[in-house]
Input
Amino acid sequence: MGDLSWKDFLTQAKQFLEISQKLGDNWVLEQKDSNEPNTYLKCSQKIKGQCGKNAGDLVSVEYHVVFSVSYQVPMLFFQAHRSDGSLLDVEATWKMFMPESKASDLHQILTQMDHPVLFRPYMALHPCRTAEVLKQFGKPSCNQVLSFISLYGPHVQLHLQNAYGLSQEYT
Amino acid sequence: MAETPESQAALSTSSSTPADKDGSKICILLNATGNVPIIKKRTWTVDPNKTVSWIQKFIHKFLKLDASEQIFLYVNQTFAPAPDQIIKNLYECHGTNGKLVLYYCKNQAWG
Output
């Protein structure tokens, strides 16, 4: 039971938002309309490029945590822009976020996919193992959305404060 | 919880420098969940400046897992700390009764 329903996702996303507000993070809940799956969590941050001739340049990244109807798990979508406004393509994104992975592996990890709410191409982490990984958490996690973000976020430089782990009262 | 001398020895080869003495180390308790093999010795002492990913690699090596499998570490049934987080910070936030309780599980992450 690593998967979760749309209703669970919505409840847990709201709990996550409450924790974020308490901790002073900049997560917001975007709601296009009340239909499944048109509500998602969003946050953005600026990170420094690490390799190539643009090392040290600031890249602004917007992360979306969207419910995947096909897989019944949260999915991480994101888009990265350079400071001149240009978009990082797939190769640039791989170089920036996963410099140590092989290209053959990367096709199974991070590719461009259709954003289920915005219907635009976004970079996305593949969801096929997410339910399995979440299931390994002994007792089911109190908030699978939080678990998901803390597990998969670091792959694309999205780090949560340690204090997120303290909020056990949200069950 | 008293620190066991043999657990000190077990990790000290790879983690200690002359500067840090055993007293400054952090006691962690490892719990297996899901289908991961159990490590008999559950209490370990670790250099506070080691990262979460170092512990993940340690468990991975200890259990001789396949390269495609990954160790996931988490606290409180819910939260997986970032791999570059150091144990000291994690202990300050999540330590109880003088030790840090960590849960671990394994799975293939992708593909």
Summary: Chain A has a mean pLDDT of 90. The longest strand of chain A covers residues 58-68. The longest helix of chain A spans residues 6-23. The interface with chain B takes residues 105, 108-109, 126, 128-129, 132-133, 135-143, 146-147, 150-151, 153-154, 159-160, 162-166, 168 of chain A (CB under 8 Å).
